[in-house]
Specification:
This protein is α/β, with parallel strands linked by helices and 376 residues long. It has helices at residues 15-26, 40-55, 69-79, 93-102, 151-160, 180-183, 244-260, 262-281, 312-323, 335-341, 359-374; strands spanning 2-3, 63-66, 84-88, 113-117, 134-139, 147-148, 163-168, 187-191, 203-207, 286-289, 298-299, 302-307, 325-326, 328-330, 348-352. It contains 11 helices and 15 strands. A 7-stranded mixed sheet has the order 2-9-8-7-5-3-4, with helices on both faces. Strands 10-12-15-14 form a 4-stranded antiparallel sheet, covered by helices on one side. Helix 1 (15-26) runs antiparallel to helix 7 (244-260), helix 2 (40-55) runs parallel beside helix 7 and helix 3 (69-79) packs parallel to helix 4 (93-102). It is globular, with a radius of gyration of 21 Å.
């Protein structure tokens, strides 16, 4: 079997991740803690430090854990105060749906103007307002075209417009270098189960110092149970029992990535993705939708395509059942970029790589697609 659906979730996980989760589940909880690990505070603190190293931020205490990127993005969008929002059309539904639905709630009528950009060259500097009142949300790497945006340039333009920048790093954390402070990113949402090789149900967000976020979830924290009403600004962002088996696995995954080196991982993925795109361009009847369609400065480990005369779902079915190759088909929870590319309602066939993808995996895919196209 060949697995090429890592943009959905990475597979296989490193053995150290499986071991860490198992050990967490087998460890007797401490009476003083609400987790399955006696040393849960140490694990979470160490994980924050590792993630701060990976994201290149100097405040690990500004990293908070959630159940994933969707959870993180909803909390950030719902908790930020802004009057204007700019959304790129290659955003995922975990951005599009909170923006389109939260803004219509009676108690959250904070959004006066919403604009969608199909190309970030259209993000021209404007006269900044008296105080920041806008928010720009974009993915670091598109989960459809693989476009990697020039975040440093975009942050500079956005800040000139008085906007905060929220970066969706679901497809980049762990496999594409991130220099958050150097670029000027204000907020980052990330998931644990893709490029970081952690378990599903893990992820989080980073808030740079100085950015105010109202919490959208309240509950037990274990810090001071006598407090019911928080003083303004004295918020807590991690409530309820933490997913310690998941976070233990995520810590092992992040350590695995740091040991391998994000630059090394990215270099391998760029070489493999470039080779695959070159091979697919040489197959008649294959239509590619790579980063050039959305102004990406470079290509991430995601390649989308269609075969003339076949629906994407049919291609995916054939690859899975005749060749043992797992891909992903459809709109990939990113409907606006598909409308822009003119490929709705069927979407694309998406191939996504990880550090564990081999050249033999890619050759098997190319051979299979050549067979399919020759049979048409």
């Amino acid at each position: 079997m060949v697995y090429l659906n890592n943009a959905a979730t990475s597979y296989p996980k490193p053995p150290s991740v499986v071991k860490a989760v198992t050990e967490a589940l087998e460890t007797m909880p401490s009476s003083a803690l609400r987790s399955s690990l006696a040393a849960s505070d140490d694990i979470m603190a160490a994980l924050r430090e590792d993630l701060a190293t990976m994201l290149h931020v100097s405040h690990p205490d500004r990293i908070f854990f959630t159940s994933g990127a969707t959870d993180a993005l909803n909390r950030l969008i719902g908790g930020l105060s802004f009057r204007h929002a700019t959304i790129t059309t290659d955003n995922h539904n975990s951005v599009l749906r909170p923006i389109e639905n939260l803004k219509n709630l009676e108690d959250l009528e904070y959004l006066e103007h919403l604009e969608y950009l199909d190309h970030l060259d259209h993000l021209d500097p404007l006269d900044p307002p008296d105080s920041p009142s806008g928010l720009l949300i974009l993915p670091h790497c598109s989960n459809v075209t693989g476009a990697i945006h020039d975040i440093a340039t975009i942050c500079q333009k956005a800040h000139q417009r008085g906007m905060l920048v929220l970066l969706d790093a679901a497809q980049s954390a762990g496999c594409i270098p991130i220099q958050a402070e150097e670029w000027g990113v204000d907020l980052i949402a990330f998931t644990g189960h893709k490029g970081l090789f952690g378990p599903q149900g893990t992820g989080g967000f980073y808030i740079r110092p100085g950015v105010s976020l109202r919490p959208t979830l309240f509950g037990g924290t274990g810090r001071d149970s006598s407090v019911i009403r928080y003083k303004d600004g004295d918020w807590e962002y991690e409530v309820g029992t933490p997913n310690m088996p998941g976070l233990a696995g995520l810590k092992a995954g992040v350590e695995y990535v740091l040991q391998a080196g994000v630059e090394t991982i990215f270099g391998q993925l760029q070489q493999q993705t470039g080779w695959l795109i070159t091979q697919l361009k040489g197959i008649p009847k294959i239509r590619l939708y790579n980063s050039g369609h959305h102004g990406g400065e470079s290509q991430g480990p995601v390649v989308s395509f269609n075969i003339d005369g076949l629906k994407p779902a049919d291609v995916g079915y054939i690859l899975q059942n005749a060749y043992g190759i797992t891909t992903r088909t459809g709109l990939h929870c990113a409907p606006l970029i598909h409308q822009q590319l003119g490929i709705t309602p069927w979407g694309t066939v998406r191939v996504s790589l990880s550090y564990h993808t081999t050249q033999d995996d890619l050759r098997a895919l190319v051979d299979a697609l050549q067979d399919i196209c020759q049979g048409l």
